[in-house]
Amino acid sequence: MRSLLLLTILAALAVLTLCYESHESMESYEISPFINRRNANTFMSPQQRWLAKAQERVRERSKPAYEINREACDDYKICERYAMLYGYNAAYNRYFRKRRGVN
Known about the structure:
Layout: H1 2-19, H2 46-61, H3 65-74, H4 77-86, H5 88-95
């Protein structure tokens, strides 16, 4: 009986210490990570937006060949699985390059 009482008291103390919620854990609830719709685009001016779009167009046009090959392989599930085992270059060569000597 004594050991049961001691065990119950220890369990209650363990629950109290593990479930205690300090003031510091509530600080993250004070600031919302979301902003309203009106203020969503105010941090970036229209000129900066235009510049970012222009830079993205340049990046799309001047992609290296390996990146284009990788995107082609990503769209084809079997090629993507093969790439996980042998690499994207080998997967692209296997599924998209024309094989020599085959008509």
